[in-house]
Amino acid sequence: MQKIDKTLLLSSEYKKWEESMGELHNPYNSSNNRYYYDVVMNLLHCQRGVCAYTEICLCDEEYYQTGYWKGGKYRFEKPEFSSALDHFNPLLKKDKGWLWENFFVVQKDINDKHKRNKIVDDILKPDTPSYNPLALLEYDELSHIFIANTDLDKSSQKRINDMIEVLGINLSWVRKNRKTHLQKIIQIIESGGEWEHEALRNHQFFTAFEMCRKKLQTQEN
Amino acid sequence: MKVAHLQLNNYNQFKNFELDLTYPTGHAKAGQPLDKVCIIGQSGTGKTSLLLFLKNLWGFLIEAEFYSDNEELRLRKYANFLPKEFRASFLNTKKIEILLSQTSSSDLIESIRFLKKEDLDANILYFSTEVELQTWGATQLTFTDFWFRIAQDIQKYQELEIQKRIELSKIIEGDSSNELLQQGRNDFAKWKQNNPNPLDDIADKLLDTVLNRFNLQVKRDLSFKKDDIGTIRIETLQGEEVPFNCWSTGTKQLITRVLPLYAMRPENYLLLFDEPEQSLYPDIQTEIIDILTSSRLSTDCQFFFATHSPLIASCFEPWEIVELKFNPDGSVYRELYYDIKKGNHIDNYTIDPRYLRWDSILTRLFDLDKDSNEARTRKLMELATLRSKLQKANGKLPPEEKVQLQSQFEKLAELLDWEYNAEN
Question: Which superkingdom is the protein from (chain A) (predicted)?
């Protein structure tokens, strides 16, 4: 799960509207809101087009270029994708349903079927300043699963592993997609081929790839 | 007569639904109707509805073969069981293509009038999920009705055998010479060789290889009691008889599906099986399709199976699988295993159930989005944690702690059936 920088606010009209609501937000209704796609597309820009938690590719880069925002609103055609706007902390949904800091775009099944209203721990909130995936996580390249960094204390490891489950990062279908994607690139790297093109062609699973590549480099050295 | 194409326009969940049931290009039988079809899909997608449609269509065709013009009302009764709008094409045994359609502007009975009755060689056997009840033609029959045919053969054999034994015992009891005695024995042995016991045929070639796994076998020894004549008897491998009312559901399932085929030896039939996996353990499920479609039991038939079993699905070529899926509006469509833009050619198929592991069949054909319970994922995380600790422990941990860690790893690896040096 990559670190996400949400400071670039392209959908400034939405942000003004959000701030104008003060402490108590209007009820959250995703399908009937004029700013829904402004939020989604701005987040996809910040998340580099992938699911905030699983890093599955959700949207092609051509849809979230900064040039598509005019006057603080997203003005390009709505892309077709299977994603959902997730409230990271479900407890904030009732009164702060439109809070920018609590939003991430995620793969639809992660939102609808898996994470739902599970209690969260900010230790794995990808936009917090202290979040550093390389310090908090490890990647097991044999089983293609993420675990907490085993150098951390036991309590932190448990908190992180619990959150990995909450966010669906190791769900078997996610794992399978990640494994298929990484194996292809790793095979190219190991055979001395040009892997950059393949990585760019199917732009996802950055964190796992980065961790695998580091291990490969260590082995080479 | 075999089904080649179906189109159902408004029948239950089937709206403008088309099925091509022929072999794709590139196949040795390209363009010919499929020999066997496996229908899979979530409950409610219409697997049984498709079987019932075919059953009713065949019921109609069987009646159409024999009706005369003044019996139109009777025929219309059978037509009423069919959807209001459908098209179907078949290939009969003379390789003549037969087209049937019923639409708002064309009447099914009218279309039948233009066909030669002798071209409608429709025969059917439908095995529903009720194991003891099958539909033969347009008639419902119980297992006993089918068994009666086999029983007659066995009875004839057994009576003849008794007769031969009596003849032999007369020779033995009489004051016969050694030469005559030997001749009598030889004649009896020769008769046995030329007239194999039907029970041996059923047991050796069909049932016992499977029944043995249930600790059962067909009882073959005659004790010459009245009950022994004309009934199939099942016993444990230890020789204790198991009466019919004590047969397990798996035993009933096997016997009541195999023996009707053995009794009738259908030729050019449509054979429909709903859930052939019912009550059968996985190892038998992998074999049941081969048993039911065996040339020993039928000739040139077309088989349709509706199933929820990945093991059953693994017995089919990809073009033989009809996977039904829901559209967002609740209607169903057939999932194709090839890119429609590239065309229906064997080389364009991206899924072949015969080559997949069982778990891959579950995820790729049956759309299961998990490869295990999520409890396994948590344990895999524990295993990866132990491996990470072991890798980092080199030279840093006291030897006894490292041994303990290794032992924990191995115990968990066994629990997870973890394959070393493989990507699990």
Answer: Bacteria
